Amino acid sequence: MGETGRMQYVLTVQCPDRIGIVHAVSGALLDVGANIVENAQFEDVDSGTFCQRTVFEADPGVTEAARGRLDQRLVGFDAQIVLRLAESRPRVMILVSKFDHCLVDLLYRWRTGDLPIDIPVIVSNHTDCEPVAKAHNIEFVHLPVSMENKAEQEASLLALMETYDVSLVVLARYMQILSNDLCERLRGRAINIHHSFLPGFKGARPYHQAYARGVKLVGATAHFVTGDLDEGPIIEQEVVRVTHAQSAESLTRLGQDVERVVLARAVKLWAENRIFAVGNKTVVFP
Amino acid sequence: MGETGRMQYVLTVQCPDRIGIVHAVSGALLDVGANIVENAQFEDVDSGTFCQRTVFEADPGVTEAARGRLDQRLVGFDAQIVLRLAESRPRVMILVSKFDHCLVDLLYRWRTGDLPIDIPVIVSNHTDCEPVAKAHNIEFVHLPVSMENKAEQEASLLALMETYDVSLVVLARYMQILSNDLCERLRGRAINIHHSFLPGFKGARPYHQAYARGVKLVGATAHFVTGDLDEGPIIEQEVVRVTHAQSAESLTRLGQDVERVVLARAVKLWAENRIFAVGNKTVVFP
Amino acid sequence: MGETGRMQYVLTVQCPDRIGIVHAVSGALLDVGANIVENAQFEDVDSGTFCQRTVFEADPGVTEAARGRLDQRLVGFDAQIVLRLAESRPRVMILVSKFDHCLVDLLYRWRTGDLPIDIPVIVSNHTDCEPVAKAHNIEFVHLPVSMENKAEQEASLLALMETYDVSLVVLARYMQILSNDLCERLRGRAINIHHSFLPGFKGARPYHQAYARGVKLVGATAHFVTGDLDEGPIIEQEVVRVTHAQSAESLTRLGQDVERVVLARAVKLWAENRIFAVGNKTVVFP
Amino acid sequence: MGETGRMQYVLTVQCPDRIGIVHAVSGALLDVGANIVENAQFEDVDSGTFCQRTVFEADPGVTEAARGRLDQRLVGFDAQIVLRLAESRPRVMILVSKFDHCLVDLLYRWRTGDLPIDIPVIVSNHTDCEPVAKAHNIEFVHLPVSMENKAEQEASLLALMETYDVSLVVLARYMQILSNDLCERLRGRAINIHHSFLPGFKGARPYHQAYARGVKLVGATAHFVTGDLDEGPIIEQEVVRVTHAQSAESLTRLGQDVERVVLARAVKLWAENRIFAVGNKTVVFP
């Protein structure tokens, strides 16, 4: 809450670029007595898409009024509008297999308040991470997956999302490939961490590929999940320097440090409405 | 020039933060048929200062009209407004002593069009860099400086700035300390490169200080010049990893690579109106 | 264990530089049938100190024989020699106050085998971290400290080191200043993480200092503890980029990620005998 | 030259790993009264290859004696030995097309003494870089290349190498693909800079590929030239952070800064005998 009982709100607008959009949005906010605290805008010239993220202070309870004014002033702009209280927190479901370094890191950041999310449920095709979930008093659901039950398992995932009212799915080293259909349903709402600096070393065992190729840096990539494996819009990437003296196992350990940080950054950016998917790329307001 | 004969303009606004400022600015731009291409805003909460940088497209020749509309709509906001054609280029005077690595790098970036500036004159207290200036067909002025003639020499510097209609002074390893008076006159218009990661290793021979201290990273800092030596608002910093095996001379060479890049970035940011001095800090829109 | 039942050993030698040292050491190793796997040597020219770290493979049980051969061949070199089985693990005592991010990270790396150490005991002047210690089945000792009991508390620390047979003390954000006497006793055996890029922002609240100064990078420094506060030999440093938009609190969070990684690297380097203290600097073989 | 008239020498040894190699080498050096200043060794476990780089001080004129002792002590080790005075400088031929940023940077570092090489000749398939060569008083040879004359042109390249007694060829953005035959002849003696972070974005227009893919970092790779395009042993890599706001042209400019530094580092490493090609990878002693 800001000064004198005012609240902070987060607004995002995405629409085809047209003259007057900035003025229309700021007018709607002025109509409800809002003071703009942070504002970022970008026009993607390739697609002609306008993206805006605004944090403003206003009296408590103006959400509906602000939405009404935005709808009215933005008639004809064909805009997708998101408006919420800054203090509200998205509910996130984490998928994990056996490696727990990303999971443990997300939970630590969640526990210390660094990640502004709620985590009602953790799902895994293995039981290795159950103790970690339990230690944090988070529901753990074991959903084994096989060639035969994949469709059912994915149906269960979707049902869990509904049950737990989840708006984001994080694949924290979940070593399963989602079906095209599930990817499509989760478009823009599922973030994966890939353990390479994409587009290098797609597919399996990227650190072993990196070792064999003798690269001098290894990295990790957080991206939106799409049906095209390892090809979704990239959200964040980072690398770390390695040398000839490191084995594939050393690269794996060093890379895990990068994976953790990259995934945590991506989840935080999403939770703060800083990511816009535009075509197969992202606009990220830091 | 943008589509169908439109021009790009750059606008910056800096003022005490108040409700309605964003709407007022966007209204003035809409009044002249401008389409906003890039827009960044920030409110510095410590000082209550609002900063905005906007790139917009509009018909040729709207500068005066836009200024008029801005003046009118921003009455009472106490705003500092800068408005110019994006294709116009600030005129820059470079000061240098004997080391030429930063100078050579700036000239290369200027020659290849990377740095959107004009460089009418290079000034030095030595003659070492005269051949470099001549090779680029840039006026070179030798202004020796001593304890006795310092005041006169600085007066000559100011006179040269006027003669050459210069709006920015770049100290590209100019190993002289400017007087308080000159610093004050050049406030916000003089950028220095310091060869350390400030605030570490202020003063003389920072690489030798760094070597003696055994640091594992050395760096460089571009900052606005103020009367407080090495204490001006920081614009940009970068570091590079070093080891025990590097001598002070090696640190110097490695650091020069960093100095070059950091100074060039700072000059480019300034030339594109991306830097706002707010108190003793900078707001930089990348 | 290497091929055909051979074991790996780690050897370090530090002595005044003299012709023949390399040959003498390699001769001693050849005497016991050792095969050198890794070898790094460095001569610090300022102090004339020679440092060598060697990993070799030899038959099990040659430690005593190798020591004997080294003593004999290195007569007159005034060498400090450390020789141990590579698979042996140093015993480490962790000191912590209230912040647990470094502690949690060290424990995670210990649990997953990344850090080749044993952690028999965690000591704190507060009880906040007791649950974390308990969750890892590690002894937790609460040693409150005040102006009055400081000498006794430090005596207890030393007694605990003896009880638990500890060779390294890690100050994982232990917000107490050790006495000169204790620093002296722990010379080369106590590693601290400082939450700034030293020598910038010594002393208290470095992230708030960094915020006030408006730096564009913040960092962390792992160093050996000495009586000179924040002046001990630097082992490792790292930085992360920040902007004007980050508050002092954000810098703190971002910096914690750096602290974790820097401290973990330093502890691992120490545990693998890769660090040599030479004067007030370190030689680190990566 | 070191203390009391002694000279510095650089020695490299590469051979199948066998017990006793380190002792044999150090024995040979001791035989000629050498004092080892720097020493690095590595065993590549995949190939069983031993690599050693040693800098030692000895009396002037011991080269032949040292070679003799090494040959004698290393009988049966099947070692490739390189031994030279540290102050001798390899002669380098630079190939370039139209982009001159790498060429200008190499020449600057050569002129200031940072790069310990001689550059007797610059060759290009265009004439754009002739003025730069002339300004540095370096021979410029224009060798246009087409589908028809490629074999002759490459023969001319080889002839020039002989004429100018060149031991290293640097492709400083030379936009031509060398024939398999030429690659084979230049194995280990030709370094190329590729303007992407390999193995990502092989082939043409990598910055445009990177822009289209929306990556958050772009990079450059220096590698030995082999018949397999963009697949030679990697020597050095670096990246720089980019955002959605950068155009393909901006990526190109930012990337050029990285290319320059990466290529210069690789050439310097080669000139100091720090690079060993082992299979399709490199061992690099920093």
Structure, described:
Four copies of one chain form a homotetramer. Chain A is of the alpha/beta class and 286 residues long. The first copy, chain A, has helices spanning 21-31, 63-73, 101-111, 130-135, 150-163, 180-185, 206-213, 248-271, and strands at 7-16, 35-44, 49-58, 80-85, 91-96, 118-124, 139-142, 168-171, 190-194, 217-224, 234-241, 275-278, 281-284. Chain A has eight helices and 13 strands. In chain A, the strands form three sheets. The first copy, chain A, has a seven-stranded mixed β-sheet with strand order 7-6-5-8-9-10-11, sandwiched between helices. In chain A, α3 (101-111) packs parallel to α8. The longest helix of chain A has 24 residues, at 248-271. Chain A binds chain D through residues 42, 44, 197-201, 213-217, 219, 233-239, 243-245, 278, 280-284, 286, and chain D through 42, 44, 197-201, 213-217, 219, 233-239, 243-245, 278, 280-284, 286. β2 (35-44) of chain A pairs antiparallel with β2 (35-44) of chain B, so a sheet runs across the interface.
